[in-house]
Amino acid sequence: MPRSSRQPPEIPDTFTLHGVDYFLDWRRLERGHSFFIPTTATPKQAKEVLKATYKHLPYTFELRTRCEYGRYGVRVWRLR
Helix (H, G, I), strand (E, B), or coil: what is residue 70? Predict the structure, then answer.
């Protein structure tokens, strides 16, 4: 039986949230790591964008509203 020539889906390195493009090197995002998104978006809005953009990855994210570096935003942790 011939093997399928289907390539795995390409995972983008950028996502867009409230009209702003953010770069995420998801290959380096290990379990337990986190990153900060300076944005006025709510954690729910950010999670919807991450789930849609990275739907082919087996990642689970935890998001919380934070004020860091004097900026309002969302901190995202990769749980698995």
Answer: coil
18: helix, coil or strand?
coil
CA angle (71, 76, 80) in 5-degree steps: 170
Local confidence band at 56 (pLDDT 50, 70, 90 cut-offs): confident
DSSP notation for 21-42: EEE--GGG--TT-EEEEE-SS-
pTM score, whole prediction:
0.81
Determine contact, residues 11/44, Cβ cutoff 8 Å: no
At residue 80, the pLDDT reads: 86
Pairing of strands 61-68, 20-23: unpaired
Q: What's the rounded mean pLDDT across residues 16-41?
A: 93
Q: Dihedral angle at the C-alpha atoms of 77, 57, 46, 69, nearest 10 degrees?
A: 40
How far is C-alpha 39 from the geometric centre of its chain's CA atoms?
14
